[in-house]
Amino acid sequence: MNVQGAEGAVAGGFRLGWWTRRRSVVVDVGIALVAVGEALARGFSFAAMTGLPAALVVLPLALASASVVLRRRYPVAVVLVAISILPACPGTTIALVGLYTLATTDAPRRVIAMLATMLGSGTSVVFYLLMDQDQGLRAQEMPVWFPPLVAGIFGVVSAVPPVLLGLYVRARRRLVESLRDRAFGLERELALLAERAEERAVWAREQERRRIAREMHDVVAHRVSLMVVHAAALQAVAVKDPEKAARNASLIGDMGRQALTELRTMLGVLRNGSGATPTAEASSRLAELAAAAGGERGEPAEDGGPVLGEVRALVDQSRAAGMTVDLAVEGEPRGYAAQVESTAYRVIQEALTNVHKHAAGAVARVRVAHREGEVAVLVQNDPPRGGAAGGGGARLPSGGNGLVGMRERVVALGGGFVSGPTDGGGFRVSAVIPDRSVAAAGG
């Protein structure tokens, strides 16, 4: 049950004075009628016994007993009224109900004990006097202690049971409220956990989207870039059938550029989370290109991940495309973690791809340094020949995600990444990647 919902139902439903439920009104009015009936019966007996006019006794007792209807609002006043009419109505309904109601409230226990003692003591005194004035009892021989004992029992019975019952109900209500509060607290915590789980799911989806984008870019973009470069070279050097060779080379270049354009489209969908969906033709073409790229010589399998030992084959591919590349390896190769080697390989791969795209004909230098607990890679190129920027005749398109993907990979492993133009007009990409397996073993 929801407390807020219950409060809303009370606020929007029945309310009469201090009553919030119709059943409470019916119960209190019923108790008041019973108390008034008892007061009328005892009032006439008290009037006959004392010789007082019945109206002067019955009407005040009836009004006093009717005050039990206020028990939920003024329980202390109801108990005091019950004490005041003890001489005429000892042990009445108003006294029992008043004490019970007072014990169920948040009234201090000392107040409850004081009023219960007053009511019990008054009841004992009244019953003792009634027994002492009863001629039938006085005619019988009984021990001296018997009347006080009976009167005391009546006093205890009239005060203790309703107080104990009220205290039990009070404790039970507090327990139920405590359990309800705990249930609502758990409900709120579950709601917060659900919100956090949703946030974590969104974050995980975004991370997976970015990871897929990086993988697709690394696996496909480099191979397709080489396709475009080869096509441009074929178009430039064909001599046997220049017209046909130029037409076929132009077709290969167009297919490569279209593939790269479709790749950028899919990367944009994966990175931005837009509602756009790549066409089936584009998806199929990308799958074919990725499969073809993986089947060629020197391309590492994606299942196992590329390793630094395959960097030489990667450099040879760029050399075959007409680029002058110098490779330098410093230090003794070590067995790095798979993610470290894969990230270092991808940085070199993407940097060489950028040289093909933006500095055709430029001389590039690749440096791999094996150090204690880390590996450093550097790819730097000179300005393009003749000062021409861009991809030259190949006109390679660029999506602007390569450097972002490299930085994300390196930073995710706790490494450092720097890229930017050099003083001589070239471009430099540098990354230092710590080996997590070595750090864990050292720790």
TrEMBL record:
Alphabetical list of InterPro entries matching this protein: DUF7134, HATPase_C_sf, Sensor_HK_TwoCompSys, Sig_transdc_His_kin_sub3_dim/P
Domain Signal transduction histidine kinase subgroup 3 dimerisation and phosphoacceptor positions: 208-272
Keywords annotated in UniProt: ATP-binding, Kinase, Membrane, Nucleotide-binding, Phosphoprotein, Transferase, Transmembrane, Transmembrane helix, Two-component regulatory system
Name recorded for this polypeptide: histidine kinase
Entry EC no(s): 2.7.13.3
Transmembrane segments: 25-44, 51-70, 76-99, 111-130, 150-169
Pfam families: DUF7134, HisKA_3
MF annotations from Gene Ontology: kinase activity
Record domain DUF7134: where: 18-173
Reaction(s) this enzyme catalyzes, per UniProt: ATP + protein L-histidine = ADP + protein N-phospho-L-histidine
